[in-house]
Write a structure and sequence with these properties.
Two copies of one chain form a homodimer. Chain A is mostly helical. Chain A has helices at about 10-30, 35-45, 55-60, 65-75, 100-115, 125-140, and strands at about 80-85, 90-95. The first copy, chain A, has a two-stranded antiparallel sheet. In chain A, a hairpin with a 7-residue loop joins strand 1 (about 80-85) and strand 2. The radius of gyration of chain A is 17 Å and the shape is globular. Chain B binds a DNA duplex through helix 1, helix 2 and helix 4.
Chain lengths: ~150, ~150
DNA sequence: CGTTATTGATCAGCATACTGATCATCAGTA
DNA sequence: TACTGATGATCAGTATGCTGATCAATAACG
């Protein structure tokens, strides 16, 4: 077989593993307890008030069955509230709490630091090229996963 | 906040998500039931007969607590046997079964196809560049995760 | 030689991700 | 309006990954 390091699947897993570790370390260092997944959901609810769970899942490419637990934990941490929509009683409207907004604001520097750290082995130019190539590969494979990314509602 | 697609952490997660989905689809299509993680372990045991779990975990960058369950499942599928080492009774020596070798051989084309499919949006040159950049970023961040990659024992 | 530190493996517990099923609700149509 | 299909959410079950603890066995040291 090929070396693991020559297989894109292994590299994908490994890079993600490092990205998560760096994120958690930076966020904890800043005094918060939030996972990358929880952060993405929180940030997206902030820019899309009263979004429902399916639309949110589409924007950040989460499986619909995963989003339930993620929101459970954001609600438990008092960062988000989940209300039944009056227009469609199947849907849950997600809204920020004050503490959610405050947390998001305070945590942003740590999140940005994490993004830099996970690319620290690359030059600026290389980092930009890596992101471009990832975006391109992802766009081509978007529909291949159960939780593709979807633009607005 | 930035768009998710401009954050390397999100791209890492998304690319990994697609890589896993493609792998599972190709392998199932070939008539097998093996995860990317199980495949990497199986392939590495094949090239390192009688390897112990910690060394195996280092070679493929798995957490030591994760490897136990992965090997459990390979043993249950009759692809691997786990024997207590006679030289160090703490250690478990991992060895392929005939069925493990046969499975590995038969599954290889599907695994290779998966690696191509997950990069299908890129030209040959771009694919090579993406892998180079991932390798470089990973090398720089290797020690930041709990399960860094380690060369031979 | 005996005490201490380290190491290989496992376990309990938690958080993503997924498969597939179910339930309530809504939308479209006859 | 009654029926059918689609949709939002949740649940049970399985597989990574991690944190931190534990246990047995080995290594290292005085």
């Amino acid at each position: 077989m090929k070396e693991p390091n020559e297989m894109p699947g292994h590299l994908a897993r490994r890079f993600q593993q490092i990205a998560v570790a760096v994120f958690l370390a930076e966020v904890e260092n800043a005094g918060f307890d939030l996972t990358p997944v929880q952060y993405a959901a929180l940030a997206t609810i902030n820019t899309h008030p009263a979004i429902d769970q399916i639309t949110l899942a589409g924007l950040i490419a989460y499986d619909r069955t995963t989003i339930t637990g993620v929101i459970d934990r954001l609600v438990q941490k008092n960062l988000v509230v989940r209300e039944t929509s009056s227009r469609d009683r199947r849907a849950r409207e997600l809204k920020m709490t004050d503490e959610g907004r405050r947390t998001l604001r305070k945590i942003t520097p740590a999140v940005e630091a994490a993004q830099r750290i996970m690319l620290r082995g690359l030059t600026e130019k290389e980092a930009a090229e890596l992101m471009r190539l990832l975006q391109k590969a992802i766009a081509a494979g978007n529909e291949l996963s159960r939780a593709p990314q979807r633009d607005g509602g």
